[in-house]
């Protein structure tokens, strides 16, 4: 790929200092400014060709448009729902993230919330601090033998499952993309949501926030759960409908909730946070030294690789083998010839949307829809099949030359 010139990067949130050092060591000027208002960001952004954020900076279409010279938005973390990726794409701005850098930390916090819910750790501590000694009020229940429902069996869902199994929990789950035989290999029995709801003692969600996951747990689905079910959300606010959750907590249908994320952050509406059966954190899933070090370093290295022309824009600068791990097994590889240059592209369909995962060994993880112009599909390697499906999409300078099914190593 040709090098992309990046001279000035704005870091708008608390990102590990290694990020700044790596960029500076590679001749990129870095400014760190935290807690900027929307107007301050709009005024400031035009001075930069790179922006690095976490989850708090809202990179709206307005911000993207105001940023005349912006070429790259780096997300030091996983979720890019605070970035208007479509607006960025339309304006030629690359969005890249560091998925995987904070997986373990988010999984560990999820487990901590499940454990705290089972034994009322947070509530008991508050009571002790209030000078009480209340042993009866905080009677808990064991996790051993209980059922944990995991909705979203990606990176974090998997790590949560394997950890909670060590407490003797039975782990069941649902994911429209991860194949049942893959999740079965790490001890999660997949089933439909209809089958899952009534079996769970605990439910934890680990999906991105998108139309199909917004309000996944709502009045109707909570009513299908066991009375007293406990729920955890360390993914994104809104996957569990907050008003429905409050109603379920008040009726006793929900016995407790562990929340790390909210529709509005910080939440102005405090009823959930103040509920006695809710334990909450201020979006701390990725807030560990280790996760921040990984994400800060990775995003800087990815930008440097892009500047040096080593890796394709939007790519994660990990080696090919590492990059392969964690990609879904429904992915397939095609070799694409564009204007005389050959590329090996790896694509998949996620939640019904075709997505590009890799190009020439470089991993894309931003949820950019490829619907419309480019289609990736899973098929057996077959020279006859490909021309028949590519006829529509191949133009003068586009030619798909071969297709082979791809499986991640170890599966
Ligand atoms: N609280 C925090 O600080 C952190 C939160 N996160 C959030 O956690 C979530 C999960 O992250 P990862 O595991 O890294 O993502 P991932 O992309 O590895 O996994 C997400 C899984 O959800 C599945 N999914 C999509 N639609 C679904 C549906 N309708 N029902 C069930 N499953 C569905 C996908 O197939 C995928 O397997 C994301 O929203 C991410 O932003 C990630 C890191 C830290
Ligand atoms: O990576 C993610 O998706 C997260 O939610 C972590 O957010 P943060 O970087 O801690 O603002």
UniProtKB/TrEMBL annotation:
Residues annotated as signal peptide: none
A Pfam family recorded for this sequence: 2-Hacid_dh
Residue ranges of every copy of the D-isomer specific 2-hydroxyacid dehydrogenase NAD-binding domain listed in the record: 112-285
GO molecular function: NAD binding; phosphoglycerate dehydrogenase activity
Domain named D-isomer specific 2-hydroxyacid dehydrogenase catalytic: residues: 9-316
Alphabetical UniProt keywords: Acetylation, NAD, Oxidoreductase, Phosphoprotein
Reaction(s) catalysed by this chain's protein: (2R)-3-phosphoglycerate + NAD(+) = 3-phosphooxypyruvate + NADH + H(+)
Family: Belongs to the D-isomer specific 2-hydroxyacid dehydrogenase family.
Protein name: phosphoglycerate dehydrogenase
Gene name linked to the record: PHGDH
């Amino acid at each position: 790929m040709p090098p992309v010139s990046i001279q000035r990067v704005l870091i708008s949130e608390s990102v590990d200092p290694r990020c700044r050092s790596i960029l500076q060591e590679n001749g990129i000027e870095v400014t760190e400014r935290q807690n900027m208002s929307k107007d301050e960001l709009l005024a400031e952004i035009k001075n930069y060709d790179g922006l690095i954020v976490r989850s708090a900076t809202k990179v709206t279409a307005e911000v993207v448009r105001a940023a005349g010279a912006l070429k790259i938005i780096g997300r030091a973390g996983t979720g890019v729902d605070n970035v208007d990726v479509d607006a960025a794409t339309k304006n030629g701005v690359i969005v890249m993230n560091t998925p995987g850098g904070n997986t373990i930390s988010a999984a560990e916090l999820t487990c901590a919330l499940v454990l705290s819910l089972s034994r009322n750790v947070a509530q008991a501590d508050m009571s002790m601090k209030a000078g009480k000694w209340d042993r009866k009020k905080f009677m808990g229940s064991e996790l051993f033998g209980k059922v944990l429902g995991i909705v979203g069996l990606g990176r974090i869902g998997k790590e949560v499952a394997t950890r909670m199994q060590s407490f003797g929990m039975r782990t069941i789950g649902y994911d429209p993309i991860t194949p049942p035989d893959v999740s079965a290999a790490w001890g999660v029995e997949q089933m439909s949501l209809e089958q899952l709801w009534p079996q769970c003692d605990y439910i934890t969600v680990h999906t991105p926030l998108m139309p199909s996951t917004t309000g996944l747990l709502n009045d109707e689905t909570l009513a299908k759960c066991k009375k007293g079910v406990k729920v955890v959300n360390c993914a994104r606010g809104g996957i569990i409908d907050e008003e429905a959750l409050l109603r379920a907590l008040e009726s006793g249908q929900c016995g407790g909730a562990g929340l790390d994320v909210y529709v509005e952050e910080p939440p102005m509406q405090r009823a959930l946070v103040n509920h006695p059966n809710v334990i909450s954190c201020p979006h701390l899933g990725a807030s560990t030294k280790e996760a921040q070090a990984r994400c800060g370093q990775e995003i800087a290295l990815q930008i440097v690789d892009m500047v040096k022309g080593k890796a394709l824009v939007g790519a994660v600068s990990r080696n090919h083998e590492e990059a392969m791990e964690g990609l879904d097994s429904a992915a397939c590889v095609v070799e694409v010839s564009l204007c005389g240059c050959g590329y090996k592209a790896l694509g998949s369909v996620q939640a019904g949307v075709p997505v590009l995962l890799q190009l020439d060994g470089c991993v894309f993880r931003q949820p950019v829809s490829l619907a419309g112009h480019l289609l990736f599909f899973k098929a057996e390697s077959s020279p006859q099949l490909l021309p028949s499906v590519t006829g529509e999409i191949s133009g003068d300078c586009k030619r798909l030359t071969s297709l082979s099914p791809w499986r991640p190593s170890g599966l």
